[in-house]
Amino acid sequence: MIIYLNGEFVPREQAVVSVFDHGLLYGDGVFEGIRAYHGRVFKLGEHLDRLYEGARAIDLQIPVNKEEMQEIVLETLRRNNLRDAYIRLVVTRGVGDLGLDPRKCPKAFIFCIAASIVLYPDELYEKGLSVITASTRRNIPTACIPRVKSLNYLNNIYAKLEANLAGMPEAIMLNDEGYVAEATGDNIFIVRKGVLITPPSYVGILEGITRNAVLDLAREKGIPVEEKLFTMFDVYTADEVFFTGTAAEIIPCVNVDGRLIADGKPGKLTWELIAAFRELTKVDGPLISPAEGASKQ
Ligand code: PMP
What does this protein need as cofactor (predicted)? Predict the structure, then answer.
């Protein structure tokens, strides 16, 4: 495995960061989880936009521009001979002293890992997930902005610990006011009377790239879509529930806190969106090897 490490491509064993890096010491930095499908990097532009916006929100200057960053991602895939992969792109505040002041970190540090994908087993897509509601509330936007995909994931990890304890693969998190926010590493959708509903980003969520792709697909298909606040009542009594995320894609959820969702089977709209999403992954995003695209045309 070859890793991009701040200007170089190095073997995995040499891909190490300093113990003085503030990404490690304070969770100070931003990252992206990205997927490559069929030789293309899905929604790469959207991922880079989110990364750079997050960096701006934490006043972190990324020392390369978006075009250069795109090339870093593509070249990491090429060096590892990968056409289908999970990509982790990380920008930390860089090396500083032991205090938390970011001004002591002169330069951000970038690394990029491309690996094969670890997914939920197929069975879970067919049967759907059973989940719980976590007692840990999602970070409030006035304290730690959930829209920034920061290296500080403790909020989500608290909820994941609850899911683990309950023997469940995911947990739903509410915001501080009790409205449904998202899952620990995925966004949430419900279907009620033919309307596809997902929480608006101001509820305090990471605005997922997969979430936005699903909203676009639904609109294209003429499915009514609403971004609005809802509570666990709406989840328990929904016709369909599913989660979206780069790693999970679209995964049905059939049991929440012991309540069966509808008849306890993944719903029709969920399947329809899964099929449309899979088609989209075949055509969206820049080619990893442009020559390949040229020879196909
Ligand atoms: N919410 C959280 C907290 C996440 O970590 C993720 C995964 N990045 C998502 C939602 C889904 O976002 P995306 O579709 O961009 O992967």
Answer: pyridoxal 5'-phosphate
Please work out whether the CB of residue 274 comes within 6 Å of at least one atom of ligand 1. Answer: no
Per-residue pLDDT of 216-251, as tens digits, reads 999 999 999 999 999 999 999 999 999 999 999 999
Do 254 and 132 belong to one domain?
Answer: yes
Q: How far apart are CA 48 and CA 268, in angstroms?
A: 33
Task: Give the sheet arrangement for strand 85-92, strand by strand.
Answer: 8-11, 2-5, 109-115, 85-92, 29-37, 40-41
> What is this structure's pTM?
0.96
Which atom of ligand 1 lies nearest, measured to the CA of 47? 15
Structure tokens at 71: 């090339």
Query: Of 149, 160, 265, 268, which one is the catalytic site residue?
Result: 149
Can you read off the two tokens belonging to residue 25?
């010491």
The β-bridge relationship of strands 109-115 and 2-5 is antiparallel
Q: Look at residues 115, 136, 157 and tell me which one is the last residue of a structural domain.
A: 115
Q: What is the pLDDT of residues 270-293, one digit of tens each?
A: 999 999 999 999 999 999 997 654
β-strand pairing of 249-256 with 129-133: parallel
Domain range enclosing 71 = 2-115
